[in-house]
Write a structure and sequence with these properties.
alpha/beta, 12 helices, 16% strand
Length: 308
């Protein structure tokens, strides 16, 4: 059965590790992530954006995950990533999602509080949990598009008030990560001082990092070598993400790294074996790369291997 994130987040806070939240779009993504989690004996969060739902459709996404749960006995959360409005969050809760994120970061504080609480009240009445966001991440990913000049760090005092007034179950904060494959122009830097202040004020609230792909250079180079065009793509170093997990971050989102792994594998096959036209031949390679990526994150970065 699918579970909520309550117990896994409680354990993550107590034992100082993070849980990977991996975006899914199709069967290969679901298989790769669940296979990796089972082999690492790790809890895992599978999340879909509104764009992924539009592409794959909820019944297919849910049934693919249910099929995975027939093979693997691990705790799995089905989560909505960046829910844009109440209606989308309600639709997901009504269709079996155990967790939803309402992203009200584009609104002012009072409106974000009001809208988030509306989602919280409904989700809680149905047994689901809610992630909210305070602060504003730069970057582009799916329907999220925020200019660098509009990015805003999370205010620790506001974070405490926000959680108290909304009753949200976890909080996504802005400490320097960003969406997409181009996260930093210079050296990577995260504001761990802000994280520390937030954790001191709301120690029992699970903290979430969005825009936290490493942008694995092996796959960037593979994409570029075989016809891609991604000069200067750069993400959050593994060392920083590992430190974040030790400092109290409970959930770390990964999307871009999975896209790069799949795309790099497909480009490589198409270039080296142009006669291949069987989707299983190239999608299977991409699936293997995604699985390797997820296992690496769980074991070496987030510290959630063996925590199922």
């Amino acid at each position: 059965m699918l579970v909520t994130s309550k117990e896994m987040f409680k354990k993550s806070i107590e034992e100082k590790f993070a849980i990977g939240a991996f975006n899914i779009n199709n069967m290969e993504f679901v298989q790769a992530i669940l296979d990796a989690a089972a082999e690492e004996d790790s809890p895992v969060i599978l999340q879909t954006s509104a764009s992924a739902i539009k592409y794959a459709r909820i019944p297919y996404l849910r049934k693919m995950i249910e099929a995975g749960l027939e093979e693997h006995d691990i705790p799995v959360v089905l989560h909505l990533d960046h829910g844009p409005d109440f209606e989308t969050c309600k639709m997901c809760v009504d269709n079996g999602y155990t967790s939803v994120m309402f992203d009200g970061s584009k609104y002012d504080f009072e409106e974000n509080v009001r809208l988030t609480k509306e989602v919280v009240d409904y989700a809680h009445s149905k047994g689901a949990v809610v992630e909210a966001e305070l602060g504003k991440l730069a970057g582009v990913e799916d329907d999220v598009n925020v200019a660098d000049s509009d990015a805003m760090y999370t205010d620790p005092e506001q974070a405490k008030e926000f959680v108290e007034r909304t009753g949200c179950d976890s909080l996504a904060i802005a400490i320097g990560t960003s969406h997409g494959a181009y996260k930093f122009k210079g050296d990577a830097k995260l504001r761990f001082d802000i994280l520390e202040k937030i954790k001191a004020l709301i120690p029992n609230t699970p903290i979430v990092l969005h825009g936290a792909s490493t942008v694995i250079q092996e796959y960037v180079e593979m994409c570029n070598k075989y016809g891609g065009n991604m000069p200067g793509a750069k993400g959050v170093p593994d060392e920083m993400l590992h430190e974040a997990s030790l400092r109290g971050v409970s959930k770390i989102n990964v999307d871009t790294d999975l896209r790069l792994a799949m795309t790099g594998g497909i480009r490589k096959i198409f270039t080296e074996n142009p006669e291949v036209f069987d989707p299983r031949k190239y999608m299977g390679v991409g699936r293997d790369y995604i699985k390797d990526t997820v296992k690496h994150k769980m074991k070496d970065v987030f510290g959630c291997s063996g925590k199922a």
